[in-house]
Design a protein that fits this description.
Layout lengths: L4 H13 L10 H9 L7 E4 L7 H11 L5 E5 L4 H9 L4 E4 L4 H36 L5 H12 L6 E4 L7 H11 L10 E4 L3
Parallel strand pairs: 1-2, 2-3, 4-5
Helix pairs in contact: 5-7
């Protein structure tokens, strides 16, 4: 992402020759719209100084909305303070213009490898959580599997959960599974599992 068409074109040509799929954006808002529409993005390379939303503001938005997304920042006006701000703001790396295309490609491939490793770790954690849940919520019916998935999807999200059902249907066990496998990771958010009829 860069507001300078010449930079976007040269980067596009280099990265396409390097066999990397990319999409260029002239402004930060266009990238955020693409992400909101569900467009898959593995790594973001963004200029810092742009009209409208600048790169550091975009970085802070991405850190909140897509923390798993590695961001490489670049600028033609780079200095130590800007680099420190970008890295403290969550940037994976900092590139100063004019940059060496091979060095940029190396940093991009490192970011992609880091993203793949992070995605694989999340998949493994999810599998382990599902196995742990299987010990609490036994059975292999479609409904039990769906319940396990729903509990895991709640992880880290504030939610008030109501559990209803006949006596002996597993309300208390489900509440225990929620408490153990979907704790809220944010401070100041209270999760309450309300079990009716107990």
């Amino acid at each position: 992402m860069d507001d300078d068409p010449a930079v976007r074109e040269s980067l596009s040509q280099w990265l396409e020759l390097a066999d990397l799929n990319l999409r260029c954006f002239p402004r930060a808002e266009a990238l955020l719209e693409a992400l909101a529409a569900g467009e898959p993005v593995s790594v973001v390379i963004s200029d810092i100084r742009m009209p409208g939303m600048d790169g550091l503001t975009l970085l802070s938005r991405l850190t909140l909305e897509a923390p798993e997304l590695p961001v490489l920042m670049m600028t033609g006006h780079g200095d130590v303070a800007t680099a420190v701000s970008a890295m403290q703001g969550g940037a994976r790396d900092f590139i100063e213009k004019p940059f060496d295309p091979e060095a940029l490609e190396l940093k991009l491939r490192q970011a992609l490898a880091g993203r793949r490793l992070s995605d694989e770790n999340q998949r493994l954690r999810r599998r382990l959580s599902v196995r742990g849940l299987a010990g609490l919520l036994r059975g292999e019916s479609a409904k039990i599997r769906q319940l396990r998935e729903q509990i895991l999807e709640l992880k880290g999200h504030p939610a008030r959960v109501w559990i209803t059902g006949e006596s002996g249907s597993g309300r208390t066990t489900t509440a225990l599974a929620l408490a153990e496998h979907a704790p809220v990771e944010r401070r100041g958010v209270e999760r309450r599992s309300i079990v009716r009829g107990d």
